[in-house]
Write a structure and sequence with these properties.
By secondary structure, the protein is of the alpha+beta class. The protein has a single domain, classed as Glutaredoxin (3-Layer(aba) Sandwich), CATH 3.40.30.10. The protein is 40% helix and 15% strand.
């Protein structure tokens, strides 16, 4: 069972999650999703693991929304997923996925809880 950290090194919360995982001693993979963007299928899979709708995965205060005149309230599920494919900066971070579960690390304690939940199985 592999842990995957969806990581943005420019984000302090994401860097904190990375440090936490490194300190845990458990193996994990880093996916810098700005350099290696997720496709629509991967985003749908991540939404399933997170058990959330697309609007909960989008950073609603990202400037790109204003500069592109995007109103999230008028977008359907498919459009929101496509927005994240086209503009991965919109994806909330950090996210840790392990087994059949994932968590957004805001607050960072959510990452800790997920690691602790699955650590005996890693």
């Amino acid at each position: 069972m592999t842990m995957i950290l969806y990581h943005n090194p420019n984000c302090s919360k994401s860097r904190a999650a990375l440090a936490l995982l490194e300190a845990s001693g458990h193996p994990f993979i880093i996916r810098e999703y700005l350099k290696d963007p997720l496709d629509a299928s991967e985003i749908r899979d991540l939404l399933t693991l997170l058990d959330i709708e697309p609007n909960a995965l989008i950073r609603s205060k990202e400037p790109i929304l204003k500069t592109h005149n995007i109103d999230l309230l008028t977008c359907n599920r498919g459009e929101l997923i496509e927005l994240m494919v086209l503009h991965p900066i919109l994806i909330e971070r950090p996210i840790l996925a392990v087994a059949n579960k994932a968590s957004i690390g805001r607050p960072i304690e959510r990452i800790t809880a997920l690691v602790n939940q699955y650590a005996p199985n890693l």
